Batch of 2 targets.
Target 1
Amino acid sequence: MSQVSASAAGGGAQAPPLPVFRIRRLCKTYGAGELAVHALRDVDLEIGHGEFIVLLGASGSGKSTLLNILGGLDTASAGQVLFGDQDLSAAGEADLTEYRRRHVGFVFQFYNLIPSLTVLENVALVTDIASAPMQAGEAVAMVGLAPRRDHFPAQLSGGEQQRVAIARAIVKRPAVLLCDEPTGALDYATGKLVLEVIERINRELGTTTVVITHNAAIAGMADRVVRLGDGRIQSVEGNLHKLGPAQLAW
Ligand SMILES: Nc1ncnc2c1ncn2[C@@H]1O[C@H](COP(=O)(O)OP(=O)(O)OP(=O)(O)O)[C@@H](O)[C@H]1O
């Protein structure tokens, strides 16, 4: 995976980051015949190393489908998705499982923590299947929950549980962090705290990050904002001046 982990060697400050993902004419169709749903139609996109992408679009526009294909949870019907030099669109189930384990952290709207395990244990669980994880305690500290590491999920607020889910996603030092509505179940202030954690991980670990949201204000945090509509890319816009979560208002 040298193409993914390398920086833009010798490229100078203006060089664009090396692509982590190269998506070409990606199509995803669910079902067949009259019942066919064209969730993605000819999507072309490159996502650079360390980029923070916000994915916007109406309900049903294909955001989760794209994220799931990037994360190896779903497969393309046509077209190509390259992760570095690995062709995810040609990968079998075993290779996709290995890809997810090694390279991808997922954060969903609902936290899916194991209720009978403490914060630290929920995070440590993942380190067994990772090749070069950080210490579980380090990941818990990164999301600001060191004082709560021995608490159980039921003893935590929604935002704290989401931060545990983020610690679990990043403890294996994934190349890619994929977040599907990470603040969807949270109130304003808590949502901002969670966005701060995601932004910090992107900045400090250089983790390429894709965040799906219905909240257009979050777009201010992105390097680039990708809008989907009816399975197609409607626009891709760069932010010259990224905003921190504290500067966002909605
Ligand atoms: N497993 C599936 N079987 C059939 N159709 C599906 C399946 N998954 C998604 N779809 C359809 O594909 C289209 C895109 O769905 P997708 O979940 O990617 O949209 P989305 O933009 O993430 O929507 P939302 O914002 O509501 O989560 C929708 O029409 C959806 O109904």
Target 2
Amino acid sequence: LRVRHRLQKNGFGGPSPRFPLGNIEEMKKKQEGVTPLEFADSIISHDIHSNVFPYFARWQKAHGKVFVYWLGTEPFLYVADPEFLKRMSTGVLGKSWGKPNVFKHDRQPMFGKGLVMVEGDEWVRHRHVITPAFSPANLKVMADLMMEPATKMLDKWTLMVNSGNPEIDFEREITTTAGEIIARTSFGLSNQNGREVFEKLRDMQITLFNSNRYVGVPFSKFMSPKQTLKAKKLGEEIDELLLSIISARKESILSGSPPQRDLLGLLLEGSLSDGRKGKSLTTKELVDECKTFFFGGHETTALALTWTLLLLALHPDWQEQLREEIQEVVGDKTLDYPMLSALRKMGWVMNEALRLYSPAPNAQRQAREDIRVDDLVIPNGTNMWIDVVAMHHDPALWGEDVNEFRPERFKDDINGGCKHKMGFLPFGFGGRMCVGRNLTTMEYKVVLTLILTRFSFSLSPAYRHSPSILLSLRPRHGLPLIIHPL
Ligand code: HEM
């Protein structure tokens, strides 16, 4: 009540919470008045905000683009106004932001004390070691690591088509392939331990996904005890396997062998050479970073590709434009890193897909001190929920064609013509912006190039358009496509 009064005194309105669930009941309730997304003749709407976040859309109407809602006993400042976001974040350093404590228990098995979770000087140290590993110079060599799993997936499709089955669930296919790619680029899959880590990480992901908790509600962590225990056990097994991989790698570097050119190899190299300046990561921290890359990196990238294939299936003219670009840039040569940046139209398509269907539908913060925004004060401890889907679909920021697929809006402007430079945030904002965005762009372009070179595709009649928030923004019923070999 004290916190609520303080927020109200500062002028932040919002829906009335009830103890102990806050506004969760209203959020879980079956929503009425939701805009339909599918019409006759297979016409599909991209106007998804009020469909995926009906409660936010409704509260926005009553309380504007900045208000407070409650997950259990935790206040969340909802922000869908980029100007407010700018004023709120100006002057707050990356290291001074917190991540909501209330999510930490749930995220612990996935991220441990990896970059996504750490704060303050710890975050500065982790980010210092990790950022160089993702530089274009280091990523260059990873294009090859990506081609093999992608080619394997396409070879399987060819076999399917040849045996008379041209329908694939692209979401499922690409999630498996992206998992394999991130495991190869993070810690390698060449030995048995790497493969086992990969299998267990996937198992853990499914387990966590199935434990549907009431985040923020007192004692909710004691719900889903079976899944919690299973995730804990898997977490311990994964840690042990990764520890043995890291120890073997360290020994091999110390005995003079060159480090492997994957992210773990680069982090080990950075840690060993920077160790004297106190800017290294411990073995346990390296374990957590490997898990962080896996969980932070593969599903998001798979979803960026999934939504892209939906959009390209609906716009065969853009499939053709991209194929022409690939022909100009790659021709009969083998795809390599320098070619990727020349695939400019593909870059626009990626941005437009990330705008319409942002795999990370929100960014989150927690104030670790009182934050002044003009004459308002956001009290220390307030959580923040930045509604990226709302901003990406706001006609006031993008114009009346906001819900149309128009990749060319990114032709001359990396911000896609958005009226506010903080209105396009697929990778977050400020010092804590996604560290893996270069890797993602590379993977996206490698995989999409290979697909478009070998197949054209259209939407299966079985597709049901139902974008849903299941941690990330996903197609609830997958993405069935009919593929046609070229
Ligand atoms: C389409 C793909 C991706 C999307 C949409 C995405 C999105 C995001 C977002 C929204 C954040 C939070 C930023 C913030 O709070 O301001 C983030 C952070 C992060 N991402 Fe990504 N990401 C993607 C791919 C990747 C990949 C491939 C990796 C690693 C291999 C990765 C690793 C991370 C890490 C470690 C952070 C935490 C950064 C920090 O707190 O300093 N992401 N990402």
